[in-house]
Records
---
Amino acid sequence: MGRVAAPLREQVIAALRQAILDFQLKPGQRLVERELIEQLGVSRTTIREALRELTSEGLVTVVPQRGAMVSAPSLEEAIDLYEVRASLESLVVQHFVERASDEEIDKLRETVRDVAKVAEKTADTREILGAKDAFYLVLIAGARSAALQQLIEGIQARVQVLRATSSRSRDGRTRWWPSSRPSSTRSRRATPRWPRSSRRSTSARRRSPRCTVCARPKRSRPARSLLSFRM
């Protein structure tokens, strides 16, 4: 019995997680246990265990007197999340520079070109983020740090939801914020979006992607930021 229950629980968690990432379950939407039980055909216990796991991942928030709902991060929470992610990524870049093989560096260059091609041909957020995910897979693999990989994977689902919601405007076109904002905390807090006067056009961003990791610097030189057009 135990062997059957464990995979079922994981399947339910994966199904709910994917529904959140695909926006079938939208930020702020209530997650009613009865409805989930009917839709997934599982027990109340399994649903509750799945919701607890997704709560620990930050994808679900439990509000007193209201129950569980899909997390909808505030601006302050978004800033904190991106700052944590940026700190982890700087270490990943440093390790990549020190440990990656020439083949992995070539692979990283290729993924950067792929991101540029996808951004040039489509404004579909999922396709662009999918290309960027491929970049990060190569980067993390080349860093060869299991500890950093675990930490980044721990916040990746929250980042995926956040960057997808924040990079799509109401009319469906892609925006290049908030992760394209200035790097200092003070600038981000003072200016949630790029000022019109200093915002580069989308076409300009697409034509000039840069990757500061692909060219291996001297080992004594500290690693720089990841992608100039980060999302």
---
Amino acid sequence: MSCFRTLLKNSRSKSKEAPAAPEAAANSAAHPGFRLWSSLAQGKHDVLSYPLCKVLLFDDSNYPAWLVLVPQVPNVTEVIDLSEEDQAQLWREVAAACRALRAIFRPTKLNIGAIGNYVSQLHLHVTARDVGDPSWPGPCYGAVPAAPHAPFARQALIQRLRKALLEHAPRPCISQAISAPSPEGRANSLPPPPSAQRRAGSSGRQ
């Protein structure tokens, strides 16, 4: 059984899933109450946080890069559970991730997937694929055991991804703070996504 399938098997229960331990979750979230599930955090590393999504690197060197975008909204399992504003922001951020991967790797194909049959916390996979990769031309999800990067190579890849994700950030992000993990591994504060900003403004909160 692949490492990816092992990861997914650990979270059969959807409603009883515990949040990630503090060191595995973002220090701040776009929506109060958001916590990254420990099963989703496993085998992944912080890259940065856009206004809506936490962007993680899935640690698998079988592919040029495999990103996971997690909307920082509690209690959502489907894209349609998000507000219309957050759905639009999600796709802007997915497109930004695609542009970043294409700029770095020039892959044969970009795969986007929202599956969640085992880990139901809403998340989207964005994977750079090449002809000849271990699961080409089939889907990459659980196809072969994950091959973690060496620590130095992983850190270098994260730095390249972070730079490209900032360069290709969606237009609404340009005037907003985008957070990257601090040296201690925790994310800096970031503004809420559009729907949360609108709600805060209507209630008079700053």
---
Amino acid sequence: MTASRAAAMPSPQCAVLRSRFPATANDVSIQLARLHRAFDATGLRLSLQHDVTIVLGEVLNNIVEHAMTDIGAAWVMLEVTREDGRLHVETTDRGRPLPPALLASVDLPEAKLPIDDLPEGGFGWFIIHTLTEDMVYERQGGINRLSFSFLEQADEG
């Protein structure tokens, strides 16, 4: 195969992490630690690793705290893959539906208060929207599927 033909072919998808785990705060922490260890073998830039960890921490904790409350034996599926210069993330769960307003572009909450008086919540979805690309949510047959990606290369400029 010639070099030009190889360059035209899409790069194969590479799994970084695939996991099914109980929807608990402790298990979210375990999965984030597993992801951190998986990153060691990827060569991804450190700032991207941090962005993915921040976003996944927010997304997975939201699933546990809001979608899975009072649902027995709840599980979350997590898949992180690399393909064509992107890191793709998909979460799947059988919890409550994601409120549609959270999928729209979210503005930064008002922050006119002194830092010690700022509310604890309200910043998560702003952070998620700011750091990710092409977020898609769908619910079908009682299953929530949230996917998004990160560009592997930092913006030059």
